[in-house]
Write a structure and sequence with these properties.
The chain is α+β, with helices and mostly antiparallel strands and 113 residues long. It is 26% helix and 36% strand. A 4-stranded antiparallel beta sheet has the order 2-5-1-6. Strands 3-4 form a two-stranded antiparallel ribbon. Strand 3 and strand 4 form a beta hairpin. The longest helix has 15 residues. The two termini are 13 Å apart. The relative contact order is 0.30.
Length: 113
């Protein structure tokens, strides 16, 4: 099993969610996060004063999929999150050793469905 963690622009969340649903992935965790990579923030004006925004608002999505679903999920994310502009985000893929559904005690692939 693989955990796919995605950092995207917030306005792309619905597009990514819909794309994942289309390929049969419905379970996900979504968090509002802040950070920066190459963007390194930006400058804004507020009531005539200029200030630096070091961390840019982003959305983080976490999903756990079987290895057979991994490439399909990644392609769905890439096609739906891309704007071809700096700050589109990143996809991180890590191994998951074990998954347990708390309510039933089901494990691994049975716990994902």
């Amino acid at each position: 099993m693989k955990k796919i963690t995605v950092i995207i622009k917030p306005f792309k969340l619905d597009d990514v969610k819909d794309a994942l649903l289309e390929v049969g992935i419905s379970g996900m965790t979504v968090s509002e996060v802040r950070g920066h990579g190459r963007q390194k923030g930006h400058t804004e004006l507020y009531r005539g004063a200029e200030y630096n925004v070091d961390f840019v608002p982003k959305t983080e999505i976490s999903i756990v999929v079987s290895e057979s679903q991994m490439d399909t999920a990644i392609q769905a994310i890439l096609s739906s999150a891309r704007t071809d502009k700096i700050g589109d985000g990143k996809i991180f893929v890590t191994d998951v050793e074990r998954v347990i559904r708390i309510r039933t005690g089901e494990e691994d692939a049975d716990a994902l469905s």
